[in-house]
């Protein structure tokens, strides 16, 4: 079997299903070089990984995948949807391949136009991708960074760097999806108030705090959000909302 120049080989073990891993990137850069070394170093630790390939074009990835489907694909997030195109292709094949995004902007990788990126990932893959960001780029993302407040009843849905969580806006407690409190994560009223004042968050009816990157459409008085959520606004709020969208550069919704 002839492997690509960049492949890292592992001796195959008997009775073990060997995995193929691909790193799909847009172009060479110091950033890519650094993360590539880390992915290679850590991905090759399991005994069942026998090769890691690298591709910079969808054509090359498609050709290799058709010959032998990849088990895991790491995708670089880029403004021109490089990783998104590859994710779409992999999912359309119907094969059971795990997808994980990497790069320097978690905001770009999951939100804004990237709500579509998350569409191609399972919930576990979204969490793992965020873990990759945190692991490789801690200096860019403080551990307690919160990307969304979408209040519903007494709690809010949010995603932080380590996992998907719920936030009780009355107590400031951060809980897992199973309802377990996450120790060490408490948002005080002072912190919540600071977040409310951020210009990138839209305050709707005094009940909702929504990250502008989660807004995917506005029709009439209805704001449509990531993950099939929506908010019905009051008519008197529309001028304020339009001004917010204009200031955030989301003129396509006006």
Describe this structure in words.
With 254 residues, the chain is of the alpha+beta class. The chain has two domains: 19-136, Response regulator (Rossmann fold, 3-Layer(aba) Sandwich), CATH 3.40.50.2300; 150-249, OB fold (Dihydrolipoamide Acetyltransferase, E2P), CATH 2.40.50. The protein is built from eight helices and 14 strands. It has a five-stranded antiparallel β-sheet with strand order 5-6-7-8-9, with no helix packed on it. A four-stranded parallel β-sheet has the order 2-1-3-4, sandwiched between helices. A three-stranded antiparallel β-sheet has the order 12-13-14, with no helix packed on it. A hairpin with a 4-residue loop joins β7 (164-168) and β8. The radius of gyration is 21 Å and the shape is elongated. The N and C termini lie far apart (56 Å). The relative contact order is 0.08. The model is unreliable at 1-14, 108-115 and 141-164 (pLDDT under 50).
């Amino acid at each position: 079997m002839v492997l690509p120049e960049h492949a890292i080989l592992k001796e195959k073990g008997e009775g073990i299903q060997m995995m193929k891993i691909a790193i799909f990137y847009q172009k060479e850069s110091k950033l890519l070089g650094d993360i590539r070394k880390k992915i290679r170093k850590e991905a090759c630790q399991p005994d069942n990984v026998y090769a890691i390939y690298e591709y910079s074009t969808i054509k090359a990835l498609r050709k290799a995948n058709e010959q032998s489907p990849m088990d895991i694909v790491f995708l670089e997030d880029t403004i021109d949807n490089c990783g998104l195109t590859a994710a779409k292709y992999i999912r359309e094949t119907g094969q059971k391949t795990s997808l994980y995004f990497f790069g320097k902007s978690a905001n770009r990788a999951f939100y804004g136009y990237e709500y579509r990126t998350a569409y191609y990932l399972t919930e576990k893959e979204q969490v793992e991708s965020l873990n990759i960001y945190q692991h490789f780029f801690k200096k860019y993302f403080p551990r307690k960074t919160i990307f969304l407040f979408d209040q519903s009843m007494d709690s809010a849905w949010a995603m932080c760097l380590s996992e998907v969580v719920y936030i009780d806006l009355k107590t400031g407690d951060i809980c897992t999806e199973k309802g377990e409190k996450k120790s060490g994560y408490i948002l005080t009223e002072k912190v919540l108030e600071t977040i409310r004042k951020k210009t990138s968050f839209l305050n709707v009816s005094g009940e909702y705090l929504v990250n502008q990157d989660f807004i995917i459409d506005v029709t009439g008085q209805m704001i449509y959000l990531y993950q099939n959520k929506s908010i019905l606004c009051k008519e008197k709020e529309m001028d304020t909302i339009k001004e917010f969208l204009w200031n955030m550069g989301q003129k396509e919704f006006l």
